Every structure is written in C-alpha cells, then in structure tokens.
Amino acid sequence: MTYVITQSCCNDAACVDVCPVDCIHPRPDEGGFDDAEMLHIDPRACVDCGACVDVCPAGAIVADHEMTAKDQVFLDIARDHFAEMAVAPRGRPFLAPAAYVAPQEILRVAIVGTGPSACYAALELLRTDGLNVRISMFDRLPVFGGLLRHGVAPDHPDTKRVAEAFERDLSPESVELFLNVEIGRDLSHDDLLRAHHAVIYAAGAAQGRSLGIPGETLSGSCTAADFVGWYNGHPDYAQCAFDLSTHRAVIIGNGNVALDVARILAMPPEHLAASDIAEHARLALTTSRIREIVIVGRGGPAQTAGTTSELLGLASLPDIDVLVEADREHIRPASRKTVLLAELAERKPHPGNRRIVFRYARSPISIEGRARVEGIRLRHYEDVELLDCGLVIASVGCRGIPIANMPFDEKSGTITNIEGRVIGADRAYAVGWMKRGPSGVIGTNKRCSAETIAHLLADFGAGRLEAPPEDAAALRRRVAQRQPNWLGREGWQAIDSFERAAAKGSARTRLKLVDRVDMVRIANGRSVS
Ligand code: NAP
Asked: Under a CB-based contact definition with an 8 Å cutoff, are residues 3 and 53 in contact?
C-alpha cells in the first residue's frame, strides 16, 4: 500500500517534515520545489505509516485503496514524477541560511497581512529554536485569512482548511491581531518601528492586471480580481454588479484563477450549495443565463498556465462540458497536461450542459460595444475574429498595491527587495506575492517566508535591528487613537462564530459577512445594521 497526494495539495510540505523515510518530494530544500505544481509520495518508498495524513492541512493525502476513480490519476502522476527525477533531477537547491545565534532580547516583529505568507512568516519565527518572539499581525480588513478567505475558490473547502491550522498554531500568547487597521493610512512604517524591531510586509497582490486595450472601461468588462472578490465576499467588491444575462462570457488568460472563475460561472447553482460563496453571488449565479465560457490563451495548449491537477479537477466536474477547440493531432501529447487537453479536444458537447471552451493562439485587441460589452476582437495569426459576448474577464495576473513610503517596483508590482530584504527602507522585509509577485500555490509561501525570516534573524543576531523604544501597551494605545474600530482576536472569533452559526441548518460552512460596518458591529456584540 502507498499514500497518494491528490488535487488539493497546498505544497505546504508539512508532510515532508514528518515522513520517516524521506519519500515525499520535491522537498523545500530541493531543486524544483518553487516551481512544483504539487508534491508527490514515492510509491516505492512509502512505508504506509500515515504520518503525512495526520499533518496535511488540506486533507489532500489518501491511501491508494481508498482513492476514488477520479483520484487514481494522481498515483500515475506520482510515478511519472519519480521516473522523471531518476533521469533528470531539476533546478537549483535551496541554500540553507547561515546559522543564527539568538540574543537574549525578545524580538518584536510586526507583520502586515494575515494571509498564507504572513502566517508562514509568523510560524517560522515561532518555531525558531531559542528565539523569544512577540508578533503583531495587521490586516486592513476586520477579518483574518487574506487570500484564504478572499482568493481561494469557495468550492475548494479543503484548501481553506489551511486557515484553521494557522489560527490554531498562532497562539495568542505570542501573536496579537490588529484587524481593520491599514498600514500606510492608520499607522505608518515608522509608527510600527516604534514598537517593533522589524516589519514584514505580506500584503499580497490585491490588484488585478488589466489588458491595456480599448473598451476595457465598458460595463461588462472587469478583472478576475474584481470577480473573485465579488463571489468571495470581499468588502471592497461586495457592491459590484455583474450582468449575467448574457449567453457567453470570455476569460482572457488560462491560469488557475481563470479556471476558478470559469468553474464558478459554469457550475449548476446546487453544486455551490455546500460552499462558502457570498450569498449575493450565489443568488446572482442562480439566475445566470451564461451557457458558454470561453477561456482564451495566447499560446498553444502546451502553454496553458493552469496546473495539471486543477485541469483534471475541472475536466471531471459533472454536468459541465469542458472542451478544447483545437485539432487533436495538433496537440503533442508531451505531458499529462497536453494528454488531457488532447482528450478534451475529442469530447463532444452534451445538449443542455453549460460548457467551458479553451481556445488558443488568440490575443485580445479590443473590447467592443456601445454602452456595454457586446463582443471582443481577437487576433488569431493573420486573422481578426469578433467573438460576441456580454462579459469579459481579464485573468492575466495581479500586482501588489503600493504602501505609503515603501519602495515599490511598478513593473513587477512588488516591494523592491532582495530575497525579502526591502531595499531603501529601514528594517523592512517582504514575503509572499508582495515579495516575488503572484506565483506558486499556498505552500510555496512557506519556503519564501523561511528565506526572508533567515535574513531577518541574521540581521537580529548581528545587532542590526534597533530595539524599539515603546512597548505593546503603547502600540495598542496608538492603534486605538488612529483606528477606534480596530478588532483583536476576540473580535475576529465573534465574526467567525456568527458566520458559522448563520449557516447552521444548511450545507454551507459559513454565511459570510461582506460589509465592514456589520463585521465591526458583530465583533462588538451588536447585531448587523
Ligand atoms: P498565471 O498563472 O500567471 O496566469 C496568467 C495568464 O494570463 C497566463 O495564461 C498568461 O498567458 C495570461 N496573460 C498575461 N498577460 C496577458 C495578456 N496581456 N494578454 C493575454 N493573456 C495574458 O496567473 P493566475 O491565474 O492569476 O494565478 C496566479 C498564481 O496563483 C499562480 O501561481 C496560480 O497557480 C496560483 N493559483 C493557484 C490556485 C490553485 O492551486 N488552486 C488557484 C488560483 C491561483 P501567457 O502564458 O501567454 O503569458
């Protein structure tokens, strides 16, 4: 028997740490880890101990004899991986940071953000031997979780479970939450340095990139960040309205975000009944008249940016036709991804089903329409095609939002940094998408955060982090003065309990609050307005 890692792998590598026989790869210290779509268990080396199952935060590991037919392919993927590795090991290995000598002093660190990269950075500090550390975590929203709450698709509950593990492991004795507090507006970097040795920016990449083509400001055109924020109940997007009365939606870009958006648009509403999708979005999708979602890629099938595991998940959804518009013989079956896409090129649509269609070798030229979107012009080699549609969603990546007085690289949309040390700002560090741009999956941030923390601790050990003049009580006073509606851990727990209780009696895990004022009222023991 062997255990197998399946679709919801978060690459967090918690499993690697507990495996007694080192059979899970790539490890964070091995080449290929940063680019790995998922981790794999070597079926020849697994000793069936189940240690990995117990620690997997996403519930992604199953015993081979308990696998569903849908999961069977992941055993084949693991076998392929180890066969390939035997022939050609990949990439540059991670260089372990220099040994760190812990000073006696308590290290006080502020982390801006409460998403995965922020949490991994905090855990890395808490798990450092011999280090006495206190952490303040800030979020501009009154809720905890960042991307886990507002980015991960609502029908991926296993991935969202990672947030519960973070909350459990970030103990209140060492980690204080300051929610509904925006750094750069309510408090400055210098304010944070008054009470901390260092500040780590983990604010993610919240702004969707646009296409830069005519017609993008028409009603019916948006970025995936807008649409994802809307269906996930992000307070900044809850008031958006999307006209779903059109028969066709077009998504530009074919990464995992595009796949998430396509799935949510195509799913029969009853399939979202057990998700934590925002109620306004669930209701709007119930009356959607969209029948076809076209996913447009610039390159060919082999350049599809979505990962193999997400494509497999999409292709196996019931009641949705997933099709590839290309001749099968033009798709070279060089990888599992292209083999799958070639199979999809042969599928025939079922009358009555909604369909997701992948189209390739097309670049957007302009969005057309008088008052609102009526179509999109695409260049296909020498030809120009007009595809009629009422909704265009640009899913072409995202970028960080600059923070006041922090050096920012406009091109990459990140804080200017080298391996997480911010260039040109005092005692500032960066992790996650704010540091390296939007790449990788949830667990990729663990290695990324470890690199930054190694530098921070080296600076602390070398005496380069000045001791802060103020204590935690002074910080709390300053926060309360600048943002009287700030919430601590108890406030967030009250919101969390309220949302879970509101979903009682339904299949849903929670009914999300989507309004900041309501969140603060619930946190303070009042009812929603
Ligand atoms: P992505 O994977 O980088 O995909 C971006 C897509 O946009 C690519 O297809 C790219 O095509 C296309 N594109 C870029 N500029 C374009 C332009 N001007 N015109 C047309 N197409 C353009 O980004 P993402 O989908 O936003 O995902 C971000 C990260 O989050 C990824 O690492 C992803 O794996 C991760 N994520 C993971 C999950 C999951 O594990 N379930 C879910 C969501 C997101 P080209 O190749 O032609 O540049």
From this structure: yes
Using the mean position of ligand 1's atoms as its centre, give its distance from the Cα of residue 305 in Å: 6
153 Cα: distance to centroid of ligand 1 (angstroms) = 15
Query: Does residue 419 fall inside a structural domain?
Result: yes
* 227-254 average pLDDT score: 97
Q: Strands across the sheet with 375-380, in order?
A: 363-368, 375-380, 383-388
Task: Examine the pLDDT at 102 and tell me if it is beyond 80.
Answer: no
Lowest mean pLDDT among 91-95, 335-339, 457-461: 91-95
Assess whether 325 and 193 both reside in one domain. Answer: no
Residues contacting 55, CB < 8 A, separation 6+:
14, 15, 17, 18
Task: State the Cα–Cα distance between residues 408 and 468, nearest whole angstrom.
Answer: 25
Structure tokens, 96:
């372990």
Q: How sure is the predictor about 93, in pLDDT bands with cuts at 50, 70 and 90?
A: very low
Verify that 272 and 417 share a domain, yes or no.
no
Is residue 55 domain-shared with residue 164, that is, in the same domain?
no
Query: Do 408 and 440 reside in the same domain of the chain?
Result: yes
State the angle between helix axes of 256-266 and 224-231 in degrees (0 to 180), rounded to the nearest 10. 50
d(CA 259, ligand 1 centre) in Å: 10
pLDDT digits (tens, 9 = 90+) for 472-529: 999 999 999 999 999 999 999 999 999 999 999 999 989 999 999 999 999 999 888 7
Position 103 pLDDT exceeds 90: no
Ligand 1 pocket, CB under 6 A: 211, 252-258, 260, 297-299, 303, 305, 307, 310, 363-364, 395-398, 438-441
Chain-centre distance of CA 421, in angstroms?
A: 23
Domain span at residue 66 reads 3-84
CB 420 within 8 A of CB 430: yes
Higher pLDDT residue, 290 or 526? Answer: 290
Q: How far apart are CA 71 and CA 2, in angstroms?
A: 13
472: CATH: 3.40.50.720
Q: Which atom of ligand 1 is least distant from the CA of 303? A: 46
pLDDT of residue 274: 87
376 and 293 in one domain?
yes
Q: Is the pLDDT score of 96 beyond 60?
A: no
Q: Domain count of the chain? A: 3
Decide: pTM greater than 0.70.
Answer: yes
Q: Of the candidates 180, 145, 113, 153, which has an alpha carbon nearest to the alpha carbon of residue 518?
A: 180
Residues 275 and 188 in one domain: no
Same domain for 312 and 448, yes or no, is no
> CB of 279 within 8 A of CB of 158?
no
Q: Which DSSP category does 25 fall into?
A: E
Assess whether pLDDT exceeds 90 at residue 406.
Answer: yes
CATH of residue 41: 3.30.70.20
Contacts of residue 452, Cβ cutoff 8 Å, sequence gap at least 6: 121, 200, 419, 420, 421, 429, 430, 431, 435
**Range of lowest pLDDT (89-103, 108-122, 392-406):** 89-103
**258 and 379 co-located in one domain:** yes
